[in-house]
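Subject: Protein entry, chain in single-letter code together with its fold tokens

Category: Structural biology, sequence-to-fold work with a learned token vocabulary.

Notation: Tokens come from a learned vocabulary of local backbone shapes, not from coordinates.

Start of record: The labelled sequence and token lines come straight after this line.
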Amino acid sequence: PDRALPSAGCSKWDIREKVWEHLEASGLADFPRPVRGRIPNFKGSRQACCSLGELDVFGRAREVKVDPDKPLEGARLAALQARKTLLVPTPRLRTGLFNRIVPPPGASKEILRRCATSQGVKDYSVPVGLDGKARVDLVVVGSVAVSEKGWRIGKGEGYADMEYAMMVSMGAVQEDTPVVTIVHDCQVLDIAEELLDDHDLTVDYILTPTRTIQTNCKRPKPQGIMWHKVSSEMLGKIPILKTLRCREQQAGKDVTLQDEHPALANTNRAAISNKKVMAANPQPRAAPVGQPHVGSEPVNPKLEGSDPMTTVYVGNLPGSLRVSELKSALRELQVVPAGLKWQGAQHRAFLDYRDQGAAHRAVSSLQGLSLGGNALRAELAKSQRNKG
């Protein structure tokens, strides 16, 4: 692995940022630029994609699902040239789950090349509904970073994990369906296993311009959609999810969404009474949403800004927790701080409150709260720093 790149003690976002930065700085980034925020295209992606044809699992596959990202264009072409059924997810899953790419009969090499581009995917595709009997034999995904053990980091929007979970739900992939990713050599890094979440997709093969790595990854792949990790926002953006959710609900599964049971619902502490849960539901509020909303103590305007802050330490945060998830738990508990210092890599955060009452309430609400499977530690911070 490339020494310019991150390793131990980094969060997923640190790793993404460093990979994007390194690809740009080293001149390896390729169109579309900048690669930041994307599954990055890189010089040599064609070469890496060519190795796909040499994999046994590709030779045996009849239906191949390849993501729509630019660096995977060569993989889409390889599938079309080998006359396999090519499935490509619809971008951001807006209209369905896949499109099947159907080249015109007797298509020339030139037309197959067109079919493999993002425009071609639009021009030559037919949507596959949930009942289309897709049986995917091989899955090809893009990555921002991947480790030789098969841990994968995507661009952070969760679409590849979601697509895979949806395929499991509709019976399109099995436990042993192989997953391949195609990256530049510098994107193969050490990734700490604690950064992995149970909904993260792992990979079985990594193709780079210079090598083929078989990961022999034993970690189980996601077993289907984890509804408690799906937000209503995501459900609103992905219509097909609604259909799958209705089906699974009818089949008797628990399909409660992430924001339907507040962060508090998974704790059985008496401190959180029903009244409190009710109050956490979006009622009209005095403070506009997103503004620090510290209980309802009147703030003395003369002291505003000159008051020393009371700082609360929150520890034992799970590595996979995002700052947004902590913020939404603070909103639900109605202990929104005036300031928040996030140190996810150290599994901790510091919350600043304008008055001690609010700080003490935050400590009692957060202590032992279960987030991402960890019971949090909360106490007043050792140093009571002044603001600024």
